Amino acid sequence: MNDDAVRAQWNRVRGRLRDEFGEAAFKSWLNPLTLADVHNGQVRICVPTRFLRDWVVTHYGDRIRALWSKENGTINGVDIVVLPTTGPRPGVTANEPVANKSPAPAALVAPCEPAAASEEIGAPLDPRYRFDNFVVGKPNEFAYAAARRVAESDTVSFNPLFLYGGVGLGKTHLMHAVAWHIRERNPRRSVIYLSAEKFMYRFVRALRFQDTMAFKEQFRSVDVLMIDDVQFIGGKDSTQEEFFHTFNSLVDQGRQIIISADKSPSDLQGMEERLRSRLGCGLVADIHATSYELRLGIIGAKAEQMGVDVPRKVAEFLAHKITSNVRELEGALNRVVAHAQLVGRDITLESTQEVLHDLLRANDRRITIEEIQKRVAEHFNIRLADMHSARRARQVARPRQVAMYLAKQLTSRSLPEIGRKFGGRDHTTVMHAVKKVEELRGTDSTFDEDIELLRRMLES
Ligand code: ADP
Ligand code: MG
Question: In terms of C-beta distances under 8 Å and separation of at least 24 residues, what long-range contacts does 451-457 make, across chains too?
């Protein structure tokens, strides 16, 4: 087979990999791969380190094989082998057909500059993420208190501090706040903040440049190490291994570690048991979903920071409607403020609804039928199972109708879909329920208030 053809195939495979896995993953893991040769239907690809090989084989091996056989029907296997790029070019042997001909495209020659020794290993801190602009409420008070404690004490209080919670609830904000606080109090203490992804990337790069000693040294001299979004390490065995060692050696030396994740240590998927238990053996603090009061407080604080006047009604409306997380809430407020400033008018409820109509619809859709069933069952004090059961007694049938009605009002589900979620009922049953509840709301004001209350509770 012709070398240029093989090379072109390899370039297409690379292009595909880049498209499928994204630029960041490509750069970290796939760019270092070089094609050595193709022999008897067997492709040989070189990677500079064993770590990288294991990684690529586990995470991308199947895809690489599939893409190759799509490109070239004669290929029946792909070998990924370790060959440091610092030595002679890989695969340049007497009978090898590919690598050593005509100037190779850039893709085949991975540039190999050593890592700059002075390079900062951490990520920069966001100057907006401070303790004094973190709004504290019931859902985050524990995490906040724990973070403050760590920031204020000179000795290690609990190791690690493990913060977890859903996306956009302030984990990164708290970690940066700790880092700022420590740096200001004692500039000599070295605090390093980085994402778990960056940690992996750094580590792999150090391996590639055979520079792992320096890598470890850098972490060894750290007083406080913060690793954000550690769930990304899940399933990645060799990084876990390295992480585990770095972690242990820092703990042994009495250094403070702060970790964040989207789940508790015991729920982290693909984590090795010993790492999981190690992560959970300090203080585990969770940040709960925001409450209405906290959202209101955050809107007030942000409006004040921006120096704009947000009417109470608008703030309440936003706090009711944008319930997903703080990031979205902030985004919504920014949009409303920017719009008012652009058109030179005051912020009103009407303008807010107009500016945010797409976002509001998306948020409405997030209420699930399961949530509605749960809330309604609680409210009427019946068993959740009765939402699905065939019982027709009034005390369960009415709440069930209410739940169907709310499902119709608050979600974008169709009548048949709703019927299915209520023990496989027919769509006409749902239709009947909706009619019945509407009728009752018109005639019974207590009932009407009840439903309104439920609706608001579900939307908050
Ligand atoms: P996470 O890391 O948990 O995904 P972030 O820390 O990035 O969330 O927070 C998302 C955004 O919401 C940030 O702009 C942050 O400043 C803001 N934020 C989150 N919680 C609060 C809070 N309690 N008070 C003020 N701002 C907050
Ligand atoms: Mg974050």
Answer: 451/402, 451/405, 451/406, 454/375, 454/376, 454/379, 454/402, 454/406, 455/406, 455/409, 455/410, 456/320, 457/375
